[in-house]
Design goal:
- This is Phosphotransferase.
- Keywords: Transferase.
- It comes from Quadrisphaera setariae.
- Pfam families: APH.
- GO terms for molecular function: transferase activity.
- There is one protein chain.
- By secondary structure, the chain is of the alpha+beta class.
- It has a single domain, classed as Aminoglycoside 3'-phosphotransferase, Chain: A, domain 2 (Alpha-Beta Complex), CATH 3.90.1200.
- 40% of the residues lie in helices and 16% in strands.
- The protein is built from eight helices and ten strands.
- Strands 1-2-3-5-4 form a five-stranded antiparallel β-sheet, with no helix packed on it. A three-stranded antiparallel β-sheet has the order 6-8-9, covered by helices on one side. Strands 7-10 form a two-stranded antiparallel sheet.
- Helix 7 crosses helix 8.
- The radius of gyration is 18 Å and the shape is globular.
- It starts with 5 loop residues before the first strand and ends with a helix.
- The relative contact order is 0.17.
Protein backbone atom coordinates (compact mmCIF):
# COMPACT_ATOMS: atom_id res chain seq x y z
CA UNK A 1 0.00 0.00 0.00
CA UNK A 2 1.36 3.39 -0.99
CA UNK A 3 2.44 5.76 1.77
CA UNK A 4 1.67 9.47 2.04
CA UNK A 5 2.72 11.69 -0.81
CA UNK A 6 5.46 14.29 -0.52
CA UNK A 7 4.01 17.77 -0.85
CA UNK A 8 6.09 20.88 -1.46
CA UNK A 9 4.71 23.56 0.87
CA UNK A 10 7.18 26.27 -0.12
CA UNK A 11 10.52 26.25 -1.87
CA UNK A 12 12.97 28.95 -2.86
CA UNK A 13 16.71 29.49 -2.81
CA UNK A 14 16.86 30.23 0.93
CA UNK A 15 14.92 27.23 2.27
CA UNK A 16 12.21 24.68 1.51
CA UNK A 17 9.41 23.04 3.48
CA UNK A 18 7.99 19.61 2.58
CA UNK A 19 5.02 17.75 4.05
CA UNK A 20 4.87 13.98 4.37
CA UNK A 21 1.63 12.97 6.07
CA UNK A 22 1.59 14.72 9.46
CA UNK A 23 5.29 15.56 9.37
CA UNK A 24 6.76 18.79 8.02
CA UNK A 25 10.41 18.82 6.96
CA UNK A 26 12.12 22.20 6.87
CA UNK A 27 15.32 22.21 4.85
CA UNK A 28 17.53 25.17 5.73
CA UNK A 29 21.32 25.30 5.27
CA UNK A 30 21.55 28.06 7.90
CA UNK A 31 22.22 26.14 11.12
CA UNK A 32 22.02 29.32 13.21
CA UNK A 33 18.61 30.06 11.74
CA UNK A 34 17.28 26.63 12.67
CA UNK A 35 18.76 26.97 16.17
CA UNK A 36 17.01 30.32 16.58
CA UNK A 37 13.70 28.90 15.35
CA UNK A 38 13.82 26.00 17.80
CA UNK A 39 14.76 28.36 20.64
CA UNK A 40 11.86 30.67 19.77
CA UNK A 41 9.33 27.83 19.85
CA UNK A 42 10.65 26.71 23.23
CA UNK A 43 10.46 30.22 24.70
CA UNK A 44 6.95 31.37 23.77
CA UNK A 45 3.85 30.61 25.84
CA UNK A 46 1.67 29.68 22.86
CA UNK A 47 1.25 26.25 21.23
CA UNK A 48 3.91 25.51 18.60
CA UNK A 49 4.79 22.45 16.48
CA UNK A 50 6.51 19.63 18.33
CA UNK A 51 10.08 19.03 17.20
CA UNK A 52 10.34 15.37 16.15
CA UNK A 53 14.01 15.37 15.24
CA UNK A 54 16.67 17.50 13.65
CA UNK A 55 19.69 16.61 11.61
CA UNK A 56 21.27 19.52 9.81
CA UNK A 57 20.05 20.82 7.42
CA UNK A 58 16.62 19.25 8.16
CA UNK A 59 14.20 20.04 10.99
CA UNK A 60 11.23 17.66 11.36
CA UNK A 61 8.08 19.12 12.94
CA UNK A 62 4.73 17.58 13.83
CA UNK A 63 1.60 19.03 12.24
CA UNK A 64 -0.43 21.22 14.58
CA UNK A 65 -4.17 20.50 14.84
CA UNK A 66 -6.92 22.92 13.91
CA UNK A 67 -7.82 25.24 11.06
CA UNK A 68 -5.73 28.14 9.81
CA UNK A 69 -7.22 31.61 10.19
CA UNK A 70 -7.05 31.94 6.43
CA UNK A 71 -4.70 32.76 3.61
CA UNK A 72 -3.35 36.09 2.50
CA UNK A 73 -5.46 37.08 -0.48
CA UNK A 74 -8.10 34.43 0.25
CA UNK A 75 -11.22 34.05 2.38
CA UNK A 76 -11.11 33.26 6.08
CA UNK A 77 -12.97 30.11 7.19
CA UNK A 78 -13.34 31.27 10.81
CA UNK A 79 -15.27 33.97 12.59
CA UNK A 80 -14.42 37.07 14.60
CA UNK A 81 -13.91 35.14 17.86
CA UNK A 82 -11.03 33.17 16.33
CA UNK A 83 -9.33 36.37 15.24
CA UNK A 84 -9.79 37.78 18.73
CA UNK A 85 -8.16 34.65 20.18
CA UNK A 86 -5.29 35.14 17.76
CA UNK A 87 -4.85 38.69 19.04
CA UNK A 88 -4.51 37.39 22.59
CA UNK A 89 -1.92 34.85 21.42
CA UNK A 90 0.08 37.61 19.72
CA UNK A 91 0.13 39.58 22.96
CA UNK A 92 1.49 36.50 24.74
CA UNK A 93 4.25 36.21 22.13
CA UNK A 94 5.18 39.85 22.61
CA UNK A 95 5.41 39.32 26.37
CA UNK A 96 8.21 36.76 25.87
CA UNK A 97 11.40 38.12 27.47
CA UNK A 98 13.97 38.78 24.77
CA UNK A 99 16.76 37.29 26.84
CA UNK A 100 14.80 34.10 27.53
CA UNK A 101 14.19 33.69 23.80
CA UNK A 102 17.84 34.30 22.95
CA UNK A 103 16.64 37.15 20.77
CA UNK A 104 18.33 40.28 22.09
CA UNK A 105 19.59 40.91 18.56
CA UNK A 106 16.98 42.14 16.13
CA UNK A 107 15.75 39.87 13.36
CA UNK A 108 16.66 41.67 10.11
CA UNK A 109 13.26 41.05 8.50
CA UNK A 110 11.55 42.67 11.49
CA UNK A 111 13.54 45.91 11.39
CA UNK A 112 12.46 48.46 8.78
CA UNK A 113 15.21 49.85 6.59
CA UNK A 114 15.14 53.13 4.68
CA UNK A 115 17.53 51.71 2.08
CA UNK A 116 15.35 48.66 1.55
CA UNK A 117 12.25 50.83 1.16
CA UNK A 118 14.01 53.12 -1.32
CA UNK A 119 15.27 50.13 -3.33
CA UNK A 120 11.79 48.61 -3.40
CA UNK A 121 10.19 51.85 -4.58
CA UNK A 122 12.83 52.20 -7.31
CA UNK A 123 12.08 48.62 -8.36
CA UNK A 124 8.36 49.42 -8.68
CA UNK A 125 9.02 52.68 -10.53
CA UNK A 126 11.31 50.99 -13.05
CA UNK A 127 8.59 48.49 -13.94
CA UNK A 128 5.58 50.79 -13.82
CA UNK A 129 3.62 48.30 -11.71
CA UNK A 130 1.82 51.00 -9.75
CA UNK A 131 0.50 54.43 -10.73
CA UNK A 132 2.93 57.12 -9.58
CA UNK A 133 0.49 58.55 -7.07
CA UNK A 134 -0.23 55.16 -5.53
CA UNK A 135 3.47 54.37 -5.22
CA UNK A 136 4.23 57.74 -3.62
CA UNK A 137 1.36 57.45 -1.12
CA UNK A 138 2.52 53.99 -0.06
CA UNK A 139 6.12 55.20 0.18
CA UNK A 140 5.02 57.98 2.56
CA UNK A 141 3.04 55.47 4.62
CA UNK A 142 5.96 53.03 4.74
CA UNK A 143 8.35 55.74 5.89
CA UNK A 144 6.30 56.13 9.08
CA UNK A 145 7.63 52.85 10.52
CA UNK A 146 11.29 53.81 10.06
CA UNK A 147 13.11 54.34 13.33
CA UNK A 148 10.26 52.92 15.42
CA UNK A 149 11.18 52.83 19.14
CA UNK A 150 8.79 49.94 19.76
CA UNK A 151 10.63 46.72 20.58
CA UNK A 152 9.51 43.27 21.69
CA UNK A 153 9.94 39.63 20.81
CA UNK A 154 8.07 39.16 17.52
CA UNK A 155 7.14 36.25 15.30
CA UNK A 156 8.24 38.25 12.27
CA UNK A 157 6.05 36.57 9.63
CA UNK A 158 2.68 36.09 11.30
CA UNK A 159 0.58 35.38 8.25
CA UNK A 160 -2.97 34.10 8.91
CA UNK A 161 -2.06 30.63 7.63
CA UNK A 162 0.56 30.43 10.39
CA UNK A 163 -2.09 30.58 13.16
CA UNK A 164 -4.40 27.61 13.81
CA UNK A 165 -7.56 27.46 15.91
CA UNK A 166 -10.02 24.76 16.95
CA UNK A 167 -13.83 24.68 16.84
CA UNK A 168 -13.97 26.47 20.17
CA UNK A 169 -11.91 29.38 18.81
CA UNK A 170 -8.83 28.45 20.83
CA UNK A 171 -5.39 28.83 19.30
CA UNK A 172 -3.96 25.34 18.75
CA UNK A 173 -0.68 26.25 17.12
CA UNK A 174 1.49 29.01 15.69
CA UNK A 175 3.98 27.83 13.06
CA UNK A 176 6.99 29.04 11.06
CA UNK A 177 9.23 30.84 13.56
CA UNK A 178 12.16 31.33 11.19
CA UNK A 179 11.77 35.12 11.31
CA UNK A 180 11.40 35.42 15.09
CA UNK A 181 13.49 37.94 17.00
CA UNK A 182 13.43 41.47 18.39
CA UNK A 183 11.39 43.96 16.44
CA UNK A 184 8.37 46.23 16.30
CA UNK A 185 5.40 44.31 17.74
CA UNK A 186 3.00 46.13 15.43
CA UNK A 187 4.63 44.26 12.54
CA UNK A 188 2.97 41.04 13.71
CA UNK A 189 -0.44 42.68 13.94
CA UNK A 190 0.05 44.17 10.49
CA UNK A 191 1.11 40.96 8.77
CA UNK A 192 -1.73 39.03 10.40
CA UNK A 193 -4.39 41.45 9.14
CA UNK A 194 -2.79 42.60 5.89
CA UNK A 195 -5.21 40.68 3.69
CA UNK A 196 -8.08 40.77 6.19
CA UNK A 197 -8.38 44.41 7.33
CA UNK A 198 -11.97 43.78 8.42
CA UNK A 199 -10.58 41.71 11.31
CA UNK A 200 -8.08 44.28 12.59
CA UNK A 201 -10.55 45.39 15.25
CA UNK A 202 -11.09 41.79 16.39
CA UNK A 203 -7.34 41.19 16.66
CA UNK A 204 -6.79 44.44 18.59
CA UNK A 205 -9.64 43.52 20.96
CA UNK A 206 -7.91 40.24 21.77
CA UNK A 207 -4.53 41.92 21.99
CA UNK A 208 -5.92 43.95 24.87
CA UNK A 209 -3.54 46.89 24.61
CA UNK A 210 -3.65 50.30 23.03
CA UNK A 211 -2.56 49.94 19.42
CA UNK A 212 -1.52 52.75 17.09
CA UNK A 213 -3.73 51.84 14.14
CA UNK A 214 -2.02 54.32 11.75
CA UNK A 215 1.27 52.53 12.49
CA UNK A 216 -0.31 49.17 11.62
CA UNK A 217 -1.46 50.62 8.29
CA UNK A 218 2.02 52.05 7.73
CA UNK A 219 3.42 48.54 8.25
CA UNK A 220 0.96 47.26 5.64
CA UNK A 221 2.55 49.59 3.09
CA UNK A 222 6.14 48.87 4.11
CA UNK A 223 5.61 45.11 4.17
CA UNK A 224 3.99 45.01 0.73
CA UNK A 225 6.46 47.37 -0.93
CA UNK A 226 9.47 45.40 0.29
CA UNK A 227 7.95 41.93 -0.16
CA UNK A 228 6.95 42.16 -3.81
CA UNK A 229 10.47 42.54 -5.28
CA UNK A 230 11.73 39.63 -3.14
CA UNK A 231 8.85 37.39 -4.22
CA UNK A 232 9.33 38.26 -7.88
CA UNK A 233 13.07 37.61 -7.73
CA UNK A 234 12.48 34.23 -6.05
CA UNK A 235 10.15 32.93 -8.75
CA UNK A 236 6.70 33.42 -7.22
CA UNK A 237 5.11 34.45 -10.51
CA UNK A 238 4.03 37.77 -12.06
CA UNK A 239 4.06 40.53 -9.41
CA UNK A 240 0.86 42.07 -10.71
CA UNK A 241 -0.97 38.94 -9.46
CA UNK A 242 0.31 39.14 -5.87
CA UNK A 243 -2.13 39.97 -3.08
CA UNK A 244 0.55 42.39 -1.81
CA UNK A 245 0.17 44.38 -5.02
CA UNK A 246 -3.59 44.42 -4.52
CA UNK A 247 -3.11 45.83 -0.99
CA UNK A 248 -0.88 48.61 -2.31
CA UNK A 249 -3.54 49.53 -4.84
CA UNK A 250 -6.22 49.28 -2.14
CA UNK A 251 -4.51 51.51 0.39
CA UNK A 252 -2.68 53.87 -1.95
CA UNK A 253 -5.53 54.77 -4.23
Amino acid sequence: MAGPEVQVVVAHRARATLRVGDVFLKVDPDRAGIDAEVAAMAAVAVPTPRVLWREHPVLALERVPGTALGTFGGATPVGAAAWTAAGAAVRSVHETPLRAAGAEAAASASVPSADRLDDACAWFAARGLLPDGVLERNRRLGQQVLGSPRRAFVHGDLQPDHVFVDEDDRVTGVIDWSGAGAGDPLLDLAVLTLGHPQHLGDVVAGYGRDVELPAVRAWWAYRCLTAVPWLAEHGFGPPETYPETAVLLRDGG
